[in-house]
Amino acid sequence: MSKNKKLSLFEWTLIFGSMRYFMGRRTISSALYPWDLIKTYFDRLTSCQKEMLVKDLRDYLEDHKIFGNEMIDHSVWLKFMHLLDEKSYIKYKEKNKKKIKIGFIINNLLYDVNKLKSSFQNFHYLGGIDINNKKIEIIK
Predict the structure, then answer these.
(1) Whole-structure pTM value
(2) Could you give the CA distance from residue 108 to residue 127 in angstroms, rounded to a whole number?
(3) I need a labelling partner for 92 at 20 to 30 A (CA). Which of 10, 116, 124, 127 fits?
């Protein structure tokens, strides 16, 4: 199946409904859900669908302050939300390198979008780079 094949209405309904179910749970499946969704469906979600998911995530966070368990689930869901939210993306590069990368910042840590999308590890294990690191240059 092509990664860029449009989601069926059924697939979209399952994604939208299951995200609402998992985002506040305190289970291992809740911590795994964002990563599984990204690796399976990210490239097939439209910008509009991503915005709808982000809106629900932001609304949930505003009402509950954390996603699930603060030590396990919260950071995974924050990375998920920012990865879906293309408006939160910034450009950066490593000093003395020409390649411009795309990332986002959470709590002064910079996360690489492509690294998160292509990782075979769960989001929980992927750390960010301290934005005060002299080896990173944020491009404005």
Answers:
(1) 0.89
(2) 12
(3) 124
Neighbouring residues of 114: CB distance < 8 A, sequence distance ≥ 6: 101, 102
Give CA–CA dist 2/5, Å, rounded. 5
Asked if the model's pLDDT at residue 1 lies above 60, the reply is: no
Write down the residue that tokens 């840590």 correspond to.
109
Give CA 70 to chain center in angstroms: 17
Got the DSSP string for 113-133?
A: HHHHHH-SS-GGG---EETT-
- Give the pLDDT confidence of 28-59 residue by residue, as tens digits: 888 889 989 998 999 999 999 999 999 999 99
Let me know: does 113 contact 104? Beta carbons within 8 Å.
Answer: yes
> Count of CB atoms within 10 A of residue 120's CB?
6
The secondary element (H helix, E strand) that includes residue 29 is: helix 28-41
Whether 15 has a pLDDT exceeding 90, the answer reads yes
